[in-house]
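can u do me a favor
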């Protein structure tokens, strides 16, 4: 193709180049490769037989890319069991897939990505227990999801009575509050297992990445208001950043 001359082959190549980089082209490929538009097939093992199941899901275009959920997606403001139902079964009415299939790229903001991480960490505790009890079903119905939750819920702190004897909501507590409770429980266990947070022999600061707990020496005041050097033995300040 000489300068100033437009041929059919050259024009098609240019158009195809634009299409391949567009979200519309990705959507066409997705629908083309699906047995039925909007249907996702998954093969799971139940006993000795392979079972193929289908689930409805939607494709949403925003930010120039395909996503499993719309840009205004919101996590369920519910208790842990309802959150588990969404985690395993999704929302057929809104065409949301099981939330366990979502990735960070499906989230429109950093805050939403953090929420997804929180939900994943909590739900994976129940998943692990269900697997240990050989009750795991990869693509369950709502009833089967509830049965799995009954098996795995003991890993959550769902008692109606706190350690101090106070009444609390237990299973009715929102899953976001349960995330905080589980973190606090892990933090207390870590501090107990590390000699109640006293300095190590090296005297270095200790940082626990998993629960984001930092133990740092502080300067305390004696009875006369004089600073006591942090090298002396004294309680350490506990900084918990969730």
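np, heres the sequence
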């Amino acid at each position: 193709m000489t300068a100033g001359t437009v041929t059919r082959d050259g024009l098609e190549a240019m158009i195809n180049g634009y299409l391949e980089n567009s979200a519309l082209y990705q959507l066409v490929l997705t629908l083309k490769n699906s047995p039925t538009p909007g249907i996702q097939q998954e093969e799971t093992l139940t006993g000795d037989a392979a079972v193929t199941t289908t689930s409805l899901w939607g494709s949403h275009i925003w930010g120039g890319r395909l996503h499993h959920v719309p840009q205004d997606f919101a996590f369920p403001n519910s208790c842990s069991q309802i959150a588990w139902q969404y985690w395993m079964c999704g929302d057929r009415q809104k065409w949301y897939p099981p939330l366990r299939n979502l990735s960070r790229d499906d989230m429109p903001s950093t805050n939403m990505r953090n929420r997804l991480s929180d939900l994943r960490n909590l739900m994976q505790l129940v998943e692990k227990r269900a697997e240990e009890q050989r009750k795991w079903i990869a693509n369950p119905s709502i009833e089967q999801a509830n049965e799995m939750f009954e098996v795995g819920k003991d890993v959550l702190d769902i008692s109606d009575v706190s350690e101090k004897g106070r009444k609390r909501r237990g299973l009715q507590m929102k899953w976001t509050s349960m995330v905080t409770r589980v973190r606090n429980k892990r933090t207390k266990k870590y501090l107990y297992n590390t000699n109640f947070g006293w300095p190590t022999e090296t005297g270095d600061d200790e940082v626990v990445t998993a629960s984001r707990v930092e133990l740092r020496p502080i300067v305390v005041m004696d009875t006369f208001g004089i600073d006591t050097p942090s090298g002396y033995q004294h309680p350490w300040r506990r900084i918990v950043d969730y």
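The longest helix spans residues 110-132. hope that helps!!
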